[in-house]
């Protein structure tokens, strides 16, 4: 079987080269995936700028190992402001992203928990799979969840905005919520899912979304949130 596999690989390689030449310009930003030859194991190889993905020891996606975790009795609940906020829902080709309006006057703040600073909510990424068993980006003990909601904020005490904070110390916070399937649909999550048919294809965006809040209940190893609404 070995010669057959190398023939197959050769043909595949040519195919990729042709694709790159035909559809210029191709951004590296669009070339990564979560599986196969452009999946996490290869991120550090497909773009030299991402070398850390191969050499780094604290790389995302993270597999949380419950047996390695230490209980922190002093950990306080994470606090998220609970008012409505407007933004844009977009299909980036990799995930669904809700980004807060640029000129929002009442930012949603994230503080408490393990955080030493106040962070300003900037965007939410929603990850899900074609199959409910493999939607989350991160895993617990090797198990993926049907979906994952990631809440990103920037340190508004040290920096002016998200892009300013992106590569700085203590710049960004990411809160990850691992979602499970339930019998009742979650009304806040539905704010997003209701609009998904408007952004079926990568690059599409929908401008008039008011996120009335995502309710998170305590539970799961990764999440140490009391009932939190943004
Ligand atoms: C905010 O501004 C940036 C750059 O000007 C733009 O790329 C982004 O789409 C804007 N965000 C929203 C939610 O409109
Ligand atoms: C959120 O933080 C900003 C400063 O970044 C502050 O002006 C605002 O009052 C805070 N919002 C709430 C609801 O506390
Ligand atoms: C973000 O802050 C930096 C530093 O103050 C500034 O140069 C930049 O224009 C700001 N970007 C946006 C999108 O407001
Ligand atoms: C946004 O949608 C609401 C109803 O959901 C509508 O009343 C409002 O006019 C819309 N705003 C814009 C700018 O389209």
TrEMBL record:
Gene Ontology molecular functions: carbonate dehydratase activity; zinc ion binding
UniProt record similarity statement: Belongs to the alpha-carbonic anhydrase family.
UniProt entry tagged with the keyword Signal: yes
Lineage: Eukaryota, Metazoa, Ecdysozoa, Arthropoda, Hexapoda
Protein name according to UniProt: Alpha-carbonic anhydrase domain-containing protein
Residues annotated as domain Alpha-carbonic anhydrase: 30-230
UniProt keywords, alphabetically: Signal
A Pfam family annotated for this UniProt entry: Carb_anhydrase
Biological process according to GO: one-carbon metabolic process
Entry superkingdom: Eukaryota
InterPro entries found in the cross-reference section: CA_dom (IPR001148), CA_dom_sf (IPR036398), Carbonic_anhydrase_a-class (IPR023561)
Residues annotated as signal peptide: 1-28
């Amino acid at each position: 079987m070995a010669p057959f596999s190398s023939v197959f690989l050769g043909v595949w390689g040519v195919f990729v080269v042709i694709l790159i030449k035909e559809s210029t310009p191709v951004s590296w930003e669009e070339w990564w995936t979560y599986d196969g030859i452009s999946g996490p194991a290869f991120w550090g190889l497909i773009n030299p700028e991402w070398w850390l993905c191969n050499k780094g020891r604290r790389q995302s996606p993270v597999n949380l190992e419950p047996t390695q975790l230490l209980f922190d009795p002093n950990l306080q609940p994470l606090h998220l402001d609970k008012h409505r906020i407007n933004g844009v829902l977009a299909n980036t080709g990799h995930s669904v992203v809700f980004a807060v309006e640029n000129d929002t006057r009442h930012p949603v703040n994230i503080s408490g928990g393990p955080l030493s600073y106040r962070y300003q909510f900037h965007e939410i990424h929603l990850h899900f799979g074609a199959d409910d068993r493999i939607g989350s980006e991160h895993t617990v003990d090797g198990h993926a969840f049907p979906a994952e909601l990631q809440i990103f904020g920037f340190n508004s005490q040290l920096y002016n905005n998200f892009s300013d904070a992106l590569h700085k110390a203590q710049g960004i916070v990411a809160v990850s919520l691992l979602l499970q399937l339930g019998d009742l649909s979650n009304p806040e999550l539905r704010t997003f899912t209701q609009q998904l048919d408007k952004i079926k294809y990568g690059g599409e965006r929908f401008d008039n979304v008011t996120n009335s809040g995502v309710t998170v209940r305590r539970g799961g190893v990764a999440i140490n949130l009391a009932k939190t609404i943004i």
